[in-house]
Amino acid sequence: MKKKKTLMIIAISILLASIPVLVYVITLNKDNGKTNKTVKREKIEKKENPSPGAKSNKADKPDSKKDEIPTIANIEVNQPGKWGNNPGNILNGGSFALQDNYLYFSNAEILQIDSTISSVPICRSKEDGITALTKLQSNNYPHDLNLAGQWIYFVVAPDGDLCRIKLNGSELEIIDSGNIKNLIIFDNVLYYLLNDNLYKRSLNNLQEKQLLVENVSYFTFSQDGKTIFYCPLANNFLGVLSGIASNEIYSIDTKGENNRHIFTDDRETNIESFFVYKNYIYFTPTKWDSSTYSPEFSSYIVRLDYTSSDPKAEQFIYISEDRSSISLYENYLYYGINNYKENSLTLYRRNLDDDSVESLTINNFTTLCTRIQSFGDKVYFITLDKIDLKNTTSCSLYCLDFHKKSILRNKTDDFNIYGTLLN
Length: 423
Prior knowledge:
The protein has 423 residues and is mainly beta. The protein has a single domain (13-46, 75-416), classed as Methylamine Dehydrogenase, Chain H (7 Propeller). The protein contains three helices and 32 strands. A hairpin with a 7-residue loop joins β4 (120-126) and β5. The longest helix has 12 residues, at 19-30.
């Protein structure tokens, strides 16, 4: 008889975001709260120079002297603004959230059939993703993580309940139920989609909610949090097939007033990776090829000036190879480009104020398990490193620091994608 219980997980390769966390937590529980010993941690200094003319305008940021795990009493709302998470991260799944130099992360959207595992954990660690790793509480596939005061707010799949727990993992509460997604907290107010309708609910009065607008596919905010930009439910070809696409952009204020049409693209176009900085909306268009009945992904990130009386989409960044993921944090636009011939991923950071560009590259790369999540100079994501004929694979949690020009990688041991850890 084996001494260790075999863990059976069936997973789709593109939805393997939770694998590193599960490996970490299994070992963590066996070691009674100690740091995972099966995780290999390595720091990789940047091996190549940024593209010509690249520069960083951000000043050096002093490291926090706080080494202890934050308590309920000493944690405030996420700084520098009033956001529960970066809105761009939520559009990318909201797998990570950062507060007081601590990283909170989960592994949403994975399929499991092992009857002994009914939920997956929210975890906390230092910013490196492994030091002081702590399992807070397991829930049904949490995503859209937001931090506000002493609480972690999140949505669980597949039920779509809106929940919260305290930062120490206690006092699970269900705030709302239904098909909930796209949770964003700003200035102590919850904004989210419930059955494709946009609602808001004050953290000071969780018993009441207000309907802002109906029939919304997804939404984001202006920098100041005063304007909501959204794409309505699809009326284009790709949207009819997928049920999630849209080729229109509208804006509305946080009171549910001043609803304004901004832009309509071709009927064959879907608007994706939708971000706002100053007076520009950035997105990636995907066109529907009616001759092949398949999507045709654009080689450009486009932008439009939503303050114009007649906004026009203009090609902004040309991407010659396969685009993997896009994110926005303040004035920095992050985007990744896959090089499958060299098994590498290059992540670029473009300063939207001065157009300078920096890049960092990781090797031994197969595919992203999560979209990129950005917090200031740092970017987090999880990758599938390899997969062979025996279905043996490994995953890595990466932290790329564009200020220090460094790459930190936390790698799992090899395991079988059908659930058996290879000890």
